[in-house]
Amino acid sequence: MNLNHYLEVSEEVKEALKNGKPVVALESTIISHGMPYPQNVETAKNVEKLIRNTGVVPATIAIIQGRMKAGCSEEEIEYLGKRGQNVQKASRRDLSVILSRGEDGATTVTTTMLIAHLAGIQVFATGGIGGVHRGAETTMDISADLEELSDTPVIVVCAGAKSILDLGLTLEYLETKGVPVLGYQTEELPAFYTRKSGFKVDYRMDTPGEIADAFLAQRAVGLKSGMLITNPIPEEYSMDKETIDHAISQALEAAKKQNIHGKETTPFLLDHVKRITGGSSLQSNIQLVYNNARLACEVAKEISNRG
Fold first, then answer.
1. How far apart are alpha carbons 229 and 14 in whole angstroms?
2. Gap between the Cα atoms of 128 and 58, Å rounded
3. What DSSP string runs through 44-108?
4. Which residues participate in catalysis according to the annotation?
């Protein structure tokens, strides 16, 4: 069996790539695990509509019945949204088994990058990336997202690393792996729900064109790593840092008491934060995804314009 047996690129995405038109990849974990139904499906469809309105082709990525999809239909998005957490969260380690068994998988940042690259897509918009978890010096809990960023040449536009993580160690890890962390119109790493973290990015980029130029230079000299673009949540949707920090502390304590660990940690903590903040974190999450999609579209268009 070859790659074509497992990879299915939609006709819309295939045509765009063939003609050098801009395409932006989107993950599916945010549909099945990031939000409840029907907000998950509504948000996914709105992001695709937003992307199309800018003249860019969206490619929602998922695994359905053992096929890696680069470009899901509306029916497939609805299917993933309704099944929710019954769809397995698929990271790199899960990919071979899910494909061989013909199962469904919601792609994380890791597998979305991987499948996007296999399909020929260079830009990916998400909410926030995983990273080094607090206490990783004893648990060794480090997201596979960071390894994928070091191995797969895709631009990832996000609102920074989730503030439930150890942001300082996450930046150190990315530096060790040679992954450039660029701040869009900021010198400070955004922390998902909030615009500030107290940690600096590697470089500030003020225009999408600058980002495109840096990525194309990286590819031209043969560097294989991805590139992380951190885009602060819009001011009007940013949450109070003290409120979020307090909610995260409570969530971490609850996770410790309930012995939550591994890949269950992030969804548990995010759900706990959502409940503590009365659901306001969910609205912030939705808005930052829209914001990242807009920037990803501009970057994809700049890359496309450079041929």
1. 25
2. 18
3. HHHHHHHHHHTT-EEEEEEEETTEEEES--HHHHHHHHHHGGGSEEE-GGGHHHHHHHT--EEE-
4. 27, 162
Q: Are 190 and 197 in contact (CB under 8 A)?
A: yes
Percent of the chain with pLDDT over 90: 75
Report how far residue 204's alpha carbon sits from residue 182's, in angstroms, rounded to the nearest whole number: 6
Q: What is the pLDDT of residues 52-98, one digit of tens each?
A: 999 999 999 999 999 999 999 999 999 999 999 999 999 999 999 99
pLDDT classification of 266: cutoffs 50, 70, 90: low
Is the omega angle on the peptide bond into residue 38 within 30 degrees of 0, that is, cis?
yes
CA distances from 180 to 204, 205, 276 (A): 11, 12, 34
Which pLDDT score, from 0 to 100, does residue 262 have? Answer: 65
CA 260 vs CA 108, 256, 265: distances in Å: 19, 6, 6
276: left (phi over 0), alpha (psi -120 to 50) or beta: alpha
More reliable by pLDDT, 163 or 297: 297
pLDDT, mean of residues 195-209? 96
Do 293 and 59 form a contact (C-beta atoms < 8 A)?
A: no
Distance CA(270)–CA(247), nearest Å, equals: 10
Rg of the chain over Cα atoms, rounded to whole angstroms, equals 18
40-56 mean pLDDT: 97
In this structure, is the dihedral angle defined by the CA atoms of residues 262, 32, 69 and 284, taken in order, positive or negative?
A: negative
Q: What is the mean pLDDT of the chain?
A: 92
Would you tell me how many other CB atoms lie within 10 Å of the CB of residue 273?
27
Which residues, other chains included, contact 209 with Cβ-Cβ below 8 Å and sequence gap of 6+? Answer: 302
